[in-house]
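Support request, priority: normal
Reporter: lab tech (M.K.)
Component: structure prediction queue

Hi team, I submitted a job for histidine kinase from Nonomuraea roseola yesterday, and the status page still shows it as pending. I've pasted the exact input below so you can check whether something in the sequence is tripping the parser. The sequence length should be 688 residues. Please let me know if I need to resubmit or if it's stuck on your end.
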Amino acid sequence: MLLLPLLSLSALWGFVLNLTVGDGQALLRAGRLYQTLGVTSTDLGLALQAERADSALSPAKRARSLGAQRERTDAALRAFTAAAAETDDAQVRQTLRDTTQELDRLDTIRASVDTGLETRLTNLNAYNGLMDSLFRLYEQLTSVPDLPIFQQASAMQAMSNAREVISRESALIGGALSEGELTEAETAAFSEYVAARKFLHARALSTLDAELRGPYDRFFAGPAFAAFTLAEARVAVTGEPPRRSEHWTRPVADVTAQLDRLGATSAKILAERSDAVSTTVMVRIAVAGGVGLLAVIASIVISVRFGRRLSSELAGLRSAALDLAEVRLPHLVTRLRGGEQVNVRKEAPPLKVSGAAEILDVAKAFGSVQRTAIEAAVGQANLRRGISQVFLNLARRKQGLLHRQLTLLDGMQRRTHEPDALDDLFRLDHLTTRMRRHAEGLIILSGSAPGRVWRQPVPALDVVRAATAEVEDYTRISVEPMPTAAVDGSAAADLVHLVAELLENATIYSPPNTTVQVRGDAVSNGYVIEIEDRGLGLAPEEYDRLNALLVDPPEFDLADSDRLGLFVVAKLAARHGVSVTVRASPFGGTTAIVLIPRGLLVEQPALPPADAPRRERKPLALVGGTTTTTTHKGLPRRVRQANLAPQLKAPEQEPRPERSPDEVRDLFSAFQRGTQRGREEEAQEGDL
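Reply from support: The job had stalled in the queue. We restarted it manually and it finished. Here are the results:
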């Protein structure tokens, strides 16, 4: 915001300074060119005019003076050539090159004069060409930055051109006087000279100001110029040279002398004016350069101080905004996710900043944004809390209905003695148990606990068997022998649920003709349960994403309902400090590793399997305070049902001996009695 005005001011100062310095450079250039090319070219022009006049004379008359004049011309030419070689001005370089090339013809012109092969007019025109090139160079040297000075200098240049025309007339008539006649071509050329001289004088007089024009007006009205114009008119009218040389030479000498004197006086006046212009340019340079520089420096200082203050105010506003965005709002969202009630007015105080009115307005705008964001976050938290409560209420109601359904199924199993009917009732009982697990999943996702706990430790093997019993395709699960270990009863139900979700995921995403291997082992950090399937597996980045979700479960997203089981596993693992990791299996599938921490393990041997002989019943204290006796049937019903499940597996999973219908009926009657007893105990243990 501050840099752009400073750059604009600096650019404007540089532009003005460049203009004024350019004028100064133009004056310096004009003075430098006048001291080098101007002086030497003027001397060369005078020498060429004199040599031209001598060259127009007859051979007898020019023999006395032409040689000495040519030496003076050569000296002037050498001085001019040396000055031209030292000049590096780009504006006059091309004109200077053309003039130098034209002057190289001087030897050829002299040879033509000496041999007499060309006419007098031709030789004079050749010298005139040399003078024309010099006058073109003069026009380049009169370029000055001040327009009035340039106009007066141009008018004086026209006067100089008229003086050159008079010199050409004098050379032409001087040659005619020595020969005694004028040719028709020379008469025509003389008439052209007269017309050009009149045009140049009129042009110069129209441009000169009053101070410079006054002396010329008086001169042109004087007797000397009148005598010259009279002699000029006689020659133009008669086409013959004057009868006596003094009738031409004296008027021409008087006119040229006075013109040279007026030219010198006018040049002095122009020089004084140029000095005044130079002083003005230097003053402008001083103002534009000095005062302008001081203004730029003052603007920079003021802008820097203002910028620092503004930067400090913006930095304070930025810090307050970052604290709001990166500290306060995330902390508030974390508290809301934890279920804490938040006071919007207390948690959204106005930002404390100081500065200009604009900064305060922005701070107020941030305060409004902060208040709106907190209100939106509180509203979202209340919405999530309401949805969780709906989940919880529905799950609790569903859990009660499922418990009643299990009770009805138990009564039907007691009244049924047909093996096929008992098998169907057992499958229906199994599906109802899975429905109860899904209801518990909703309770877990809502942030509550399912409610099933045991005071006594539960063997790890029975945890795995109970989880297996809650999987639809349980006949494909193969549980290998596991070391003796027991888990705390308060975490047993959640561990059963966790392992059941992983087992069901393994059976769903693996071919139906494969088995799911379950292994357990005691390690230094606790107890490990490995679940390995023979599916297609996942990409490495997908494993990384799932492991990140299991390590740090995010807030449950209602839109992402395809992985409810993983959310449930992550929540249960985070609740008890259990580590769950998935990785690629050597067989191409997926291996899930559940590490139960040592804090959840207790020193107690595992209970005997289902087919072991009954031991003496011992009292078992339940959560509700009721005391009962138990054998293997005293375990949770799903554990007991899992122990019986191997006896009901399909022939391809575990071959069983052929039994008669009476033996099968007795077997399911025993299972029926065990199931009924287990449900009664679950009701006493607080299964709801």
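The CA atoms of residues 32 and 38 lie 9 Å apart. The longest strand covers residues 516-523. Let us know if anything else looks off. Ticket resolved.
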